[in-house]
User: Fold this.
Amino acid sequence: MQKHALIIQDISCVGRCSLLAALPVFNACGIRTTPLPTALLSTHTAFDNPHRLDLTQDMAQTLAHWSQLPLRFDLIHVGYLAGAHQLPAVQRAVDAYHRDGALLCVDPAMGDWGKAYAYCDDALLEGFRGLCAQADLILPNRTEAAMLLDTPYEKGPDSPDKLLHQLRALTGRFDASAVITGVSEQDGYIGAACLTPDATIPHVRLAPQLKGAWPGTGDLFAAALETALLLDHSLEDACGIAVGFLYQCLQNAPTDHKEARYGVPFEGALGWLRKRILDN
Ligand code: PXL
Assistant:
């Protein structure tokens, strides 16, 4: 049976993030996707003054229409929201579709590099904590982990063990897993660490660190990891695949900030990802 993923995040037309990064990753590996767009932006928010259209009302109407259809999903991904006012619509989608073995994956898109996104307020943070409490898998970066846990963001080489145990506790579920991205335990390397319910120590997966910062890396990472999970890889393996995918994508990526804003050139690496995931 073909797997089917519901992806709840924005459409940023320019900048290769959120839905425009996630959908091709799932689709390249044969997974059917259904988007529930939260907002339409002319670019992501690292460009000045994007045009924004808030789609909260449209989310509610879309969900009302879908309630008349026999839709079911194997995975629900929640990412970038336009604000806390969208949480009721997201909860409605979770209530409708987080059942029959569907995995709820929450990427609490609230900030990066030690800074919260401008629109992110306490209500959104609380809302993401509430979504994390229901999730099967949460995937914050180090900035978001610090926000969720109300601990200071630590720069530089770090050990993710304590954070991951605290994140798993935050889910409030004995069977949930946590992944943290942007981990650089070793100088010159970057990647992710994951903690599954049956493990006491995290698994860390690293690749050589490339100089630069590209918007959308978290969205691509989550999509690659979730695709691998849906296609029967373990979380540790899926984490390694997603780290490897980003390394493949970024090897020839522009590093200059003005160019890097256009996002990760992931298109040429989709074949690598498909092979890595499907050639078990
Ligand atoms: O990749 C995260 C993201 C998603 N959507 C929008 C963003 C960002 C990060 O800045 O601005 C609109």
Q: What stands out?
A: The pocket of PXL is lined by residues 10, 12, 17-18, 41, 44-46, 80, 109, 117, 215-216, 218-219 (CB under 6 Å). The first strand starts at residue 4 and ends at 8. The chain has a mean pLDDT of 95.
